[in-house]
Amino acid sequence: MSQSSSATIKNVRSPDGTAIYAEAVGNPRNPPVVFIHEVTFSSTVFDELMHDRRLVDHLYLVRYDLRCHGRSGMASGENGHQSTCYADDFCAVVRAFGLQRPIVVAWGIGAATVADVCAVANPNPIAALVFVAPLPFLRAEMPRLATERMLGVAQVLCSTQDAVVAARAKTEFIHGVFAGSACRIPDAVKASWLGQSIAQPPEVTRRVLSRQQDSSRLLEAGRRGLPLMVLVGSQDALVDGAAAIGELRRHYRNAEMHVVEGGSHALFVDRKDEFVKLLLVFVGKLAVMTLMG
């Protein structure tokens, strides 16, 4: 990062001892926004956003690597993948940076971590949600929002410990992430993300995707008025955008939904300008709502 937007880096210790890599950029006095990445990747997928002056000048941007991803520590056994652990990681990052009720931007299955936080943390530490191509439901509930292509990849990754088989499935996952207009994203970016994905051992990926979870309090939070913005790409090959909008609209009474024309699963990359604009407008609306009481 440039000197003017240098990151504050912290290795946060979660209550179970797992080290969580986190970093922040911007002015801490600005509205805090925490970014949660898609599974098998790391928070480096948000590099371009963390450099974007429009965001850095107006928001306090925080990102972290989920446990067993990127630069964060590996959790041992099934116990290391309980909802409590994922919620504790999030809350530890929030405390480490002194955040007061941050807005959360969660991408893909990263949205499932929000369900963990809602299920465990009391009171809910989240001020508002931005779901990008969301798959907040795991296991048997995933088919409600996922495409057949995504379900095929998930089925393989949930059932194999073979590194070659898993690598093939993760390659198909990358192709799905960058389908449509996103195929024009530089090959170096795709290779970097694929490398992150394959670096995660197959057994860990299986545990991440097949862990038990209760999403009922995530939906309850919506019925209680938690603000939500959903962004889906019209060319997303992994998430059924219409299904995601329909399902979340049923539960979130304070929500807005946007279909980003030409956007892929990684719409914050191939449609970055539109993503940035929508995020800043959403945060501005929340500020006005807060002032109005």
Overview of the molecule:
42% of the residues lie in helices and 16% in strands. The protein has an eight-stranded mixed sheet with strand order 1-2-4-3-5-6-7-8, with helices on both faces. α10 links the parallel β7 (228-233) and β8. The longest helix has 21 residues, at 272-292. The model has no long low-confidence stretch (mean pLDDT 94). The chain is built from twelve helices and eight strands. It has helices at residues 47-51, 53-56, 83-96, 111-120, 148-157, 163-177, 187-199, 202-210, 216-223, 241-251, 267-270, 272-292, and strands spanning 8-13, 19-26, 32-36, 60-64, 103-107, 128-132, 228-233, 255-260.
State the end-to-end distance.
37 Å
Question: How much strand content do the residues show?
Answer: 15-25%
The rounded Rg comes to: 17 Å
Low-pLDDT stretches: none
Which structural class should the secondary elements be placed in? alpha/beta
The SSE string, one letter per element, is: EEEHHEHEHEHHHHHEHEHH
Helix content: 40-55%
Largest sheet, strands/sense/barrel? 8 strands, mixed
